[in-house]
Amino acid sequence: MTSSLARKLEELVGRGKVFSSDSELLCYSYDATPLVSHRPEAVVRVTSEQDIAAVLELAAQEGLPVTPRGSGTGLSGGSVPVKGGIVLLTTAMNRIIEIDADDLSVTVEPGVITADLHAAVEELGLFYPPDPGSMKISTIGGNVAENAGGLRGLKYGITGDYLLSLDLFLIDGSKVHYGTKCVKDVAGYNLTKFLAGSEGTIGFFSKIVLKLIPKPRTKKTFLALYDDILDAARTVSALIARRIIPSTLELMDSVTINCVEDHVHIGLPRDVAALLLIETDGHPEVVKEEAAGIEAACTASRVRTLRIAKDAKESEELFTARRNALTSLARVKPTTILEDVTVPRPRIPEMMETIREAAAKFSLRIGTFGHAGDGNLHPTCLTDERDRDEIHRVEQAYDMIFQRAISLGGTISGEHGTGITKSKYLPQLVGPKAIEVMKRIKAAFDPEGRLNPGKIFPEPME
Amino acid sequence: MATSLNADEIAGALATLDIHDYGDVLQCMRCGSCLPHCPTYRTDGIETQSPRGRVAMIKAVIDRRLQASEEFVEHMYHCLDCRNCQTVCPAGVKVGELVLEARHRIEEHTPQPLLKRFMLGSAIRDQKRLSRYLTPLRAYQLTGLQKVVRRSHILKWISSDLEFMEALLPTLPSRPLAETIPDVIPAVGKEKGRIGFFLGCAMNLVFAEVSRDTIAVLTRSGYTVVVPKGQQCCGTPNIAEGERKVYREMAEHNVALFEDRDVDAIVCDCAACGMELKAYRETLAPVHRVAHRAEAFSAKIRDVSEFLVAALGPEITFGTIAEKVCFHDPCHLRHGQKLVTPQRELLRRIPGVVFSDIPDEGQCCGSAGIYNITHRGRAMRILEAKVEAIDKTAADRVVTSNPGCFLQLDYARKHWNREWSLSHISQLLRSSLERGETMQ
Ligand SMILES: Cc1cc2nc3c(=O)[nH]c(=O)nc-3n(C[C@H](O)[C@H](O)[C@H](O)COP(=O)(O)OP(=O)(O)OC[C@H]3O[C@@H](n4cnc5c(N)ncnc54)[C@H](O)[C@@H]3O)c2cc1C
Ligand code: SF4
Ligand code: SF4
Fold it and tell me: Angle B269-B275-B278 (CA atoms, 0-180°, nearest 5)?
């Protein structure tokens, strides 16, 4: 059964690139975000810039919405086509066009898988630090659109920090190029940086140039267990006070630790209140010095046990707990709802306290883990989408958590984006004037509001 | 596959999956972690060919948001049941098994074509009978006609699929193994114990010599091997096609057959059979009269490598085989039985063997039962990727332990003119042990 839209698209880009059967539309109605889905009218897997232009032009003629999509691992509903229309799939545009080892940059198509990029550049002794948990399947296009972070964010920054230049298709099918390969480039407004985190609402990236750095020579990993979560928080402050910026500084609370132990049995004591995973990397001399500092900071903050990896294998073992955090939480109940509130580092204990209160107040099971180094926390609610009452309580708990994050000077999203799920909190965070300015910017790029509609801005009340 | 569909009944039948053990469909959090590991997603790159998509489709049929149409049924048959997704899924969703369960419920509510009923209901049940069906094929190979046909490409002319089937087929042994061996084969030297041997259909009828090697290694390791006569198919083909009635009868028969033989373990040299026999404890659980006996039976099943890694003690001398070797993990061994180390450890014990892992080692070869015949195009693309990965190891020999994988890799070797040779792990172990004996 081919719709007339699908037929027209096939005429433009050829058969085999257009999907429109019932099951195909169903399979592009969701991403990794719980509880949101909507079917598109057609899906096109573009393979070239000509394809992109042709589809956008047809969509313009027909007045149809267009939603860019990478691998669909987004956690704020970014690639869910809430207004129907066409889904523009980037996964077939997955060539690494050039690795410039002399000038430390890499040029890719948007559908390149993050981990494939890592492998390709590391083979040449180079390094692309952003490492979101989903890196084995997320696309670079999706990473740029969500300005994705990762475990190495604290020391090395996030996707946007590595973005040098972009080729962008506007919704009318015209193409613009922003930025250069130069690390310094102040010509005109810096639209390149602005596009990092634009959530597929401003334009469709067709080519992306990213900055690379040399690969760190060595690293050292620590796992610190605490009887009191405040001691873990004190360690974070103690590290910063010693001017140490670890490459990884991850936190897990007791709910998460116990779920991990249930699932992978790695011998973590059941009664610890929190753990920190700490890693430092770089020149061997520096690593040695920082490692001593880390040990001292942990001891000064009343660490219960400190495990230090002797080699790469032991370091991997210490990462096991953190790598299995979400995994283990996800097995407990059918529905797992994960958020990414972020607060200034010194406010982490207060934020953790509010999360605990919210769980108690609304009788919910919430495990929290996250990037303690940059204040980005993942309170993860273990629930069941069939239980309407509980889902309602989950919403109330997150309301409470988001309010608190805002009042602590933090933000509603550290890395997953606003999308559909957090748009209702945005006005409160940034204020009405900022929303108005953002809307004017959006209109300048997309006057008809057809590119990824229904995202970022709260829908006006009916 | 199905002939005419009753969409409504199927949706109703699927609805109870929620409370079923095969991984609650709701448990899928759509994280996409399974996508890069699924062979069909890797070849096609679209969501309908992914584990996440398959769960979404099943869930939508249950919720009546998607018709249980011909298209849905086709999607259920696109899965290879390689279970790679099950190894990686953080939430513990068993997509491969879920798809099999969906097939079963579709088939139950759909009239089945006669030939399929015959194949699954009668032909495979009795290995003697199955062997008779293969007789014309054997004659065809013996008369030399096979060579003529292969050379003249006459088959290409008639139908490309037939030609493919023909290329896939090895030379069949003149008699099935079961007819040529006694049912108790004594241990060599001092007896350490008695074990059963489950002789799968493909091993018995096609790879008789390989299973002969397996038995030889088992007896040399000090065990008396019992091969009860009258074994029936383990039931894998039935499960794959959604058939359960004959499956249960055969499974019950096999459980009973080994029950009276007083064996400590039951060894199997076909990964697919091994996985299925280990699953009897679940598949027979609803049948009251055998449930606990099936549990005991499954607990005794050991893959050949799993058993030998402990059984071949320090008293055994391995002879040198100076080769670069890699192991192709059958999916039903690695993902189905979660066995990764025993086969590697065994190969590393052979002096002279330089072992290396195949990049992306958990990937399927595309054989998947009869998938390479029913979905040939896709299976070939999966196989091509496998061969490229094998090339990267520069191995002299590829070792595996499943007849389907063996046929598929053997086809690849000839089709793409590869230099490496191919062995079942039992073949390599036997040569090494024999060399070890002459050394002493
Ligand atoms: C298990 C798991 C762990 C995760 N861990 C992290 C983490 O550590 N850090 C983190 O930041 N995120 C994380 N995420 C969230 C998610 O993986 C990221 O947001 C990722 O960047 C999405 O990439 P994608 O290819 O899946 O994009 P999609 O989900 O397909 O799309 C995301 C957004 O990008 C837009 N888009 C995609 N391609 C283009 C393009 N070419 N042009 C314009 N817009 C485009 C889409 O319209 C959409 O708005 C995680 C998700 C999961 C499921
Ligand atoms: S099946 Fe498992 S790995 Fe795949 S999307 Fe669902 S939860 Fe994730
Ligand atoms: S069993 Fe294999 S083919 Fe089927 S969904 Fe899982 S990974 Fe894909």
Answer: 105
Rounded (10°) CA dihedral A410, A414, A418, A422: -50
Residues of B in contact with A72 (CB under 8 A): 30, 32, 47
Q: How many CB pairs under 8 A join A and B?
A: 84
Domain B317-438: top CATH class: alpha beta
Helix intervals (H) in A301-408: 312-323, 325-332, 348-361, 388-407
DSSP string, A206-219: EEEEEE-EEPPSEE
Contacts of A355 (CB under 8 A, 6+ apart): A366, A368, A377, A379, A401
| Helices B70-78/B51-62 angle, 10° precision | 150
CB contacts of A386 in chain B (<8 Å) are 26
The protein residue whose alpha carbon is closest to atom 5 in ligand 2 is B30
Residues of chain A with pLDDT under 50: 462
**Ranges of CATH 1.10.1060.10 domains, chain B:** 7-108
Are the CB atoms for B134 and B208 separated by under 8 Å? Answer: no
Task: Say what angle helices B7-15 and B95-108 make with each other, to 10 degrees.
Answer: 140
Beta carbons of A22 and B36 less than 8 Å apart: no
Local structure of A376: helix, strand or coil: strand
End-to-end CA distance of chain A: 35
Distance from CA of B395 to the nearest CA of A (A): 22
- What span, in angstroms and rounded, lies between the C-alpha atoms of A448 and A445? 9
Ordered mean pLDDT values, 10 residues apiece, chain B (440 residues): 66 63 74 95 95 94 89 92 91 90 83 65 66 61 54 48 68 84 93 94 89 96 94 88 87 93 94 96 89 95 96 91 96 96 96 94 88 83 95 96 93 94 96 86
The reply to whether B359 touches chain A by the CB within 8 Å rule is no
Burial of A310 (C-beta count, 10 Å sphere; 0-12/13-18/19+): exposed
Give the Cα separation of A132 and B290 in Å (integer): 49
Partners of A32 on chain B (C-beta within 8 Å) are: 29-32
pLDDT of residue B179: 87
Query: Which of the ligands is closest to the CA of residue B80?
Result: 3
pLDDT at site B4: 64
Residue A220, classed as helix, strand or coil, is strand
Provide the residue ranges of all domains of chain A, joining segments of one domain with +: 2-89, 96-214, 216-329, 333-451
Of B36, B60, B65, the CB nearest to A137: B36
User: In this structure, are residues A239 and A294 in contact, taking their beta carbons and an 8 Å threshold?
Assistant: yes
State the Cα torsion A361-A304-A276-A296 to the nearest 10°: 130
**How far off is chain B from A158, nearest CA to CA, in Å?**
21
B241 burial via Cβ count (<10 Å: 0-12, 13-18, 19+): buried
- Please tell me whether residue A37 adopts helix, strand or coil conformation: coil
Tokens of residue B214, six digits: 């397996």
Distances (CA, A) of B206 to A30, B135, B231, B347: 46, 12, 16, 24
What would the CATH number be for the domain defined by B7-108? Answer: 1.10.1060.10
By the 10 Å C-beta count (0-12 exposed, 13-18 middle, 19+ buried), A450 is classed as: buried
- Report the atom number in ligand 2 closest to the C-alpha of B92: 2
* Window B:153-192, CB contacts with A under 8 Å: none
Q: In what order do the strands lie in the sheet with A66-69?
A: A18-19, A42-45, A86-89, A66-69
User: Can you name the CATH fold of B177-309?
Assistant: Glutathione S-transferase Yfyf (Class Pi); Chain A, domain 2 (1.20.1050)
CATH 1.20.1050 segments of chain B:
177-309
Fold classification of A216-329 is: Alpha-Beta Plaits (3.30.70)
CATH class of A2-89: alpha beta
| Number of the ligand closest to the Cα of B56 | 2
